[in-house]
Design goal:
Layout (H helix, E strand, L loop, with lengths): L3 E6 L14 E2 L2 E2 H11 L5 E5 L3 H9 L3 E3 L9 H11 L6 E5 L8 H13 L4 E7 L5 E3 L7 E3 L11 E10 L1 H7 L7 E5 L11 H15 L12 E4 L11 E2 L5 E2 L4 H12 L3 E5 L5 H9 L3 E3 L5 H12 L6 E5 L5 H6 L2 E4 L5 H6 L2 E2 L8 H15 L2
Parallel strand pairs: 1-4, 1-6, 4-5, 7-11, 12-15, 12-17, 15-16, 17-18, 18-19
Antiparallel strand pairs: 2-3, 6-10, 7-10, 8-9, 13-14
Helix pairs in contact: 7-12
Length: 381
Amino acid sequence: MKDVLAIIPAWERSLDGKSPYVRPFLGRPLIAHSISHALGAAVISHIVVATQDLETAAVANALGVQVVGNRSGSGENLESAILRILEASEHDPDVVVVLDGRAPLRDSSDIDGVLALLERERADSVFSSVLIPGPIWRRGSGPGDNLASEQDADQPAGELLRETGSIYAFKPAILRGTGRFLGGRIAAYYMDQLDALVVRDQREFDLAAELAAHRLRSRPPEGIHRIRLIVFDFDGVMTDNRVLVHQDGSESVACNRGDGLGIGLLKKAGLAMLVLSKETNPVVTARCRKLNLEVIQGCEEKLKTLRQLASERGLTSSEIAYVGNDLNDLECLEWVGLPIGVSDAVPEVLRVARAVTHKPGGHGAVREVADWFLNARRSST
């Protein structure tokens, strides 16, 4: 295959009636993940994002990817829209790959696998699929029809596959001749059901974000070597987010000794840190004083304060890590170079975090973050 064109449609507006493609997912717009999948594939020659959404187009342009316009009309199906793009394109590719822009959990290797299958099987088209384990039952079309097992059919059912919509690959002649992506000799590329997930609603978006966060716990965060300042939220990060109220109205919180040790090790390693808290509470002051840790309390506009700190210290956002757990941390998490969420953070935080701890806040999450940085420094020496 000399020329492979990847087309990423970004037309749907399924989440709250808005374009889902620019919503933050692991710290990047959703569409950026599909673009990265295509960029990372070994055999893709050219990439096109199809959209009329200006924000989505801006993301694609920032990644150096060509943008083409929307469907010509609301009644136009996906195949017809892709065919129109092909006919208007200066490229005459050997193979076209269509990637759903709402599938953030696939991998570049899946794209290479689809194209390898196309060539190995001498197929004309390939679709990504998942196996449906049996036993399978089928309901008739009429209201009084009985359920029937596939095993009762005259012919054995064989493997049952579901077309995922995540990846299609086909020779252009197939689409031109049939008006469909699939035709001629068809092959099926198997994917894990979760890898193939296409986010079509809020529930699936949250599921994908939680799954991706779980996967992030198994590997060190990218960009950790660039970080010069770590900023911690206090409640829910250095504590378990509970507060004990005593009879006299005073409050106390539970902290983890391992977190304190991790802070001490980071200080010995020379990494700058501070606590940025919305609360004004003596317990925060006391804990930070014990750890000899800089603290800013009563901060109603965290991002504004963080930007000012960065300017004063000559830091860019890419040199700052922020560890948070709740909604008031979102702006900072979206701005910094390394957004980190604790494992029990709210879904909105997990959605934008590029790294997620195994342990929850107040139960060793800070020590875990410390270990990431300490191990990264040891591996670089």
